[in-house]
Design goal:
It contains 16 helices and eleven strands. It has 412 residues and is of the alpha+beta class.
Length: 412
C-alpha cells in the first residue's frame, strides 16, 4: 500500500473517530438533560404531594409530556421531550428552571454570535461558520434570525445605556479605551468602557460609549452622562492606563476622585524603552515597587531603579517618574483590595479575546454593530465576575476611614 493511501486511511479513521466521539458527547448530553428534567419535575410533584383538593385528590400531578423540540447546543442539536406538570392551584404554575419555555438555543450558542461578528463574519456566512463549530445539524440560526437578534440587542443596548443610576455608588471605577476595526468605516472606533465596584463589592459594567479616540472630550461626555443619569457620589478611586484624555476629563467631572495608574501598562511602557538583555532585572525592580508591603519599601525600589538606569536609559526613567504621583495611590486603600485596584485587569481580561490593539481583522460592518456586539459580550462576561476581596471593608472606606499601607489608621 502506498504512503499516500496509508495517510488517507489514517485521516479517514481519525475523522470517523472524531465523528463518533461528537455523537457520543451529544447523546450523553441529551440523556443528562432528560434525566435532569425528569428529576426536576419529580421533586416538584413530590414537594407538593400533600396538597389535595376538597375531594381528596392531589392538585399537583404529572400530565404527560410536552411536544418534542430541538435545542441547539455546543455539542449539536439535542432532542427534548419535556415532562408536563398539571398544577390546579390558580396562583401557581410550574416553570422549569433548567429549560425555560420557548428556549431554542443554549445561551452559550447565542454568545457565539457577537464573537463571530467581531471576528468579521458576515450574516450570510453564519450558517457555514456555525456548522464548523456546532456540526452539520446546527439549526435555528438562519440569517433572518440573526438579523432579528441584532435588532433586539440594539434596543437592549439603548435601554441599558440610558438606565437610571439613581441610588448606585461606585467605590472604584476602571476605565479603558478599546479599539476595533469596522469594515464600512475609514477609522477605527474607540469604545470607552467603564466598570465599577458597588458598595457590596460586586463588579458591574457601568457604560460603553462610542468615542472619537481617547480624547478628553469623549471621556468627559461619558463621565458627565453618569452624573446626568443619577450618579450622585464620585468614585473613591479611578484606575486607568496612560490615556491623558481620561485623566483630564476625570479631573473636571469628578475632581474629588483619586487616581491610580495601571501598573501593567506602566511596566510595559518602561520596559519597551530598554534593551531586552536589561529587561529581566529592570522588571524585577518594577515588580518590587507595586508588590512591596509598604509605600516606603516601594519608594526604595523606585529610587534604586532611578539610580541604576538613569544614566544609560533616561527615557525609561522619565517614563516611570512622570507618573510617580499616581502609581502608588493604592497604598492609601485597604490591602485586601490591592490586587483589584493596581491595574485595569478587570477590563483587560474581559476583552482579552476580542480586543484589536495589535492585530487586524475585518471587523464588524458598522459602528453600531460593533457597539452592540461588545455590549452583549460584556454582559455575558459580567455574569462570571466575582466580588472583590475584603468587600466588607468598603463600608469603612465610604465612611472616610483612613488607610496607611493598606491598614486602617486607627486599627488596633
Amino acid at each position: 500500500m502506498s504512503d499516500d493511501k496509508v495517510v488517507s486511511l489514517q485521516d479517514r479513521v481519525a475523522e470517523d473517530s472524531r465523528t463518533a466521539l461528537d455523537e457520543i458527547a451529544r447523546l450523553g448530553a441529551q440523556e443528562m438533560l432528560k434525566r435532569a428534567l425528569e428529576n426536576e419535575v419529580s421533586e416538584y410533584v413530590q414537594r407538593h404531594a400533600g396538597k389535595v383538593d376538597e375531594d381528596g385528590k392531589r392538585v399537583v400531578v404529572r400530565n404527560g409530556k410536552m411536544p418534542r423540540r430541538e435545542i441547539v447546543s455546543g455539542v449539536g442539536p439535542l432532542e427534548v421531550e419535556q415532562p408536563r406538570v398539571h398544577d390546579r392551584r390558580s396562583e401557581q404554575r410550574f416553570t422549569s428552571q433548567i429549560l425555560p419555555p420557548f428556549l431554542r438555543r443554549l445561551p452559550s450558542v447565542d454568545n457565539l454570535i457577537p464573537v463571530l461578528y467581531l471576528k468579521g463574519v458576515s450574516t450570510g456566512d453564519f450558517s457555514e461558520a456555525l456548522k464548523a463549530i456546532l456540526g452539520e445539524n446546527a439549526s435555528g440560526l438562519s440569517a433572518t434570525n440573526i438579523v432579528r437578534l441584532k435588532q433586539e440587542w440594539e434596543k437592549d443596548y439603548e435601554g441599558w445605556q440610558g438606565r437610571s443610576l439613581q441610588g448606585k455608588r461606585y467605590v472604584y471605577l476602571w476605565a479603558d479605551g478599546i479599539y476595533f476595526n469596522v469594515r464600512l468605516a475609514d477609522d477605527r472606533p474607540c469604545l470607552l468602557v467603564t466598570m465599577g465596584t458597588l458598595e457590596d463589592g460586586r463588579k458591574e459594567l457601568v457604560a460603553i460609549h462610542d468615542g472619537e479616540r481617547e480624547s478628553k472630550l469623549s471621556w468627559l461626555e461619558t463621565l458627565r452622562d453618569l452624573r446626568r443619569r443619577g450618579l450622585e457620589h464620585a468614585p473613591k478611586l479611578a484606575i486607568g492606563d496612560g490615556a491623558l484624555g481620561f485623566w483630564a476629563a476625570l479631573a473636571e467631572a469628578f475632581p474629588e476622585t483619586q487616581w491610580q495608574r495601571c501598573w501593567i501598562h506602566k511596566k510595559a511602557n518602561v520596559l519597551n524603552k530598554m534593551p531586552k538583555k536589561v529587561q529581566p532585572s529592570a522588571k524585577k525592580l518594577l515588580d518590587e515597587m507595586h508588590q512591596a508591603e509598604t509605600e516606603q519599601d516601594a519608594m526604595d525600589a523606585y529610587d534604586e531603579f532611578q539610580k541604576l538606569y538613569q544614566a544609560k536609559f533616561p527615557k525609561a526613567c522619565e517614563c516611570l517618574s512622570k507618573d510617580k504621583d499616581v502609581l502608588f495611590t493604592f497604598y492609601s486603600f485597604p490591602a485586601e483590595h490591592w490586587n483589584h485596584i493596581r491595574t485595569t485587569n478587570p477590563i483587560e481580561s474581559t476583552f482579552a479575546t476580542v480586543r484589536h490593539r495589535t492585530r487586524r481583522t475585518k471587523g464588524c460592518g458598522s459602528r453600531t454593530a460593533t457597539l452592540t456586539m461588545v455590549f452583549k459580550l460584556c454582559l455575558e462576561a459580567q455574569k462570571t465576575w466575582r466580588r472583590i476581596n475584603g468587600y466588607d471593608i468598603i463600608t469603612l472606606l465610604i465612611q472616610g476611614r483612613k488607610f496607611v499601607d493598606g491598614v486602617m489608621e486607627d486599627a488596633a
